[in-house]
Amino acid sequence: MPEMISVEQARDLVLSHVSQLPAETVPVLDAAGRVAATDLQSDIDISPFAHSAMDGFAVRAAQLEGASPETPVELDVIAEVAAGDTFDGEIPDGACVRIMTGAPLPAAADSVVKYEIVRNVEGDGRPGSRVAFDAPVKLRNNVREAGEEARAGEAVVHAGEVINAAGVGFLASCGVSEVPVPRRPRVAIISIGSELVPPTEVPTAGKIRNSNGYALSASARAAGAIPTLLPIVEDSLEALKAAVVAATAEYDFVVTSGGASNGDFDFIKPCVEQTGQLFMTLVNMRPGKAQTFGLVNGTPVFGLPGNPAAAYCGFEMLIRPALRKMQGYTNLARPRVMARLSRDTKKKDPRRIYLRATLTKDADGAYVVEPAKNQSSGLFGVIQRSNCLAIMPEGFEGRTAGSEIECILLDVSEDVAI
């Protein structure tokens, strides 16, 4: 096992030990944002009939040949067809039918002229009126054809496709009321530390509230997983082993925070090593150098550091992609952009540094990134006010104001193309 590995190696290592979870069937409304596990087919043609694309008048294109402002064609309005109604009658020469958006096109018509460009000669344009057309119309103008979007039996959403809000409506129109999707991973969140107390308690001397557990649960939920915040575990190897082994029997992924370094009370590494297989302990990144990963009873177990920023960055870079892969997503990395640094930034650590930062656009629309002044790994508030991680590459070389650096967008989904 290498002493320290790159972020990319760590990410690939974690991804290699997770796979897409079995499918579950959910109501189509609950499928928004999730991945289709199978091809989904329409039970009818969409649209099932040719219909008008707008309010207007249904005609035969041949009726309006030669129409112009100087020689308009006048027609009598003999009927009106609204959405949900039909008109099955004939349309004689010299006549037309008023039609509403979405209404079936009468079999006797082949085109629709929108209402706004038709003049009323007599009446208000409703049945019994006479209207004038000042221009010819193209055949099938303003007509949405039957089967234009899909044919019966055709796959309208393919396996692996992320279903968005419009897709839910599309599937509903195709008669799909239930959708098979890879189930969400159940994630156990375990905070380690005898100094921790619940947020409901006022900490006494030497105690702190369990903020990491809540942040990581929220991060897991934001990644689409189903988190469960388990009881705090004291600084004891035996207690931690019991908690981790029990969690692996019930959950798909186990995340711990705290106890990941090399101190006398840091037990996650020996815990994984003694109960399963240990694959990783150190990653070339800051914050978050101490990252433990392995399998216990075949279940991925990831030990994050106790410092809030280190735990958050480790989750974003290494755990979130794994949870998305388990749900069938193929885009696993958040979008990145290049941005100009707002100020000089020194670098005293050779590791890759993820600066908590704010990304904005200048007057010309170019990205500008401002790293937070306080980069302490013990702070959550800085992350709350950041929208990106600005990357300082490995090595000791700093960057001057105006230099371009790569930024990971924290508030943009992996499925968004930038």
TrEMBL record:
This is Molybdopterin molybdenumtransferase. GO terms for cellular component: cytosol. NCBIfam families: Glp_gephyrin, molyb_syn. Pfam families: MoCF_biosynth, MoeA_C, MoeA_N. Residues 188-325 form the MoaB/Mog domain. Pathway: Cofactor biosynthesis; molybdopterin biosynthesis. Coiled coil: none annotated. It comes from the Bacteria. SMART domains: MoCF_biosynth. Catalyzes the insertion of molybdate into adenylated molybdopterin with the concomitant release of AMP. Belongs to the MoeA family. Its EC number is 2.10.1.1. Its cofactor is Mg(2+). SUPFAM superfamilies: MoeA C-terminal domain-like (SSF63867), MoeA N-terminal region -like (SSF63882), Molybdenum cofactor biosynthesis proteins (SSF53218). One of its GO terms (molecular function) is metal ion binding. One of its GO terms (biological process) is Mo-molybdopterin cofactor biosynthetic process. It comes from Senegalimassilia faecalis. It is an enzyme of class 2 (transferase). Keywords: Magnesium, Metal-binding, Molybdenum, Molybdenum cofactor biosynthesis, Transferase. It catalyses: adenylyl-molybdopterin + molybdate = Mo-molybdopterin + AMP + H(+).
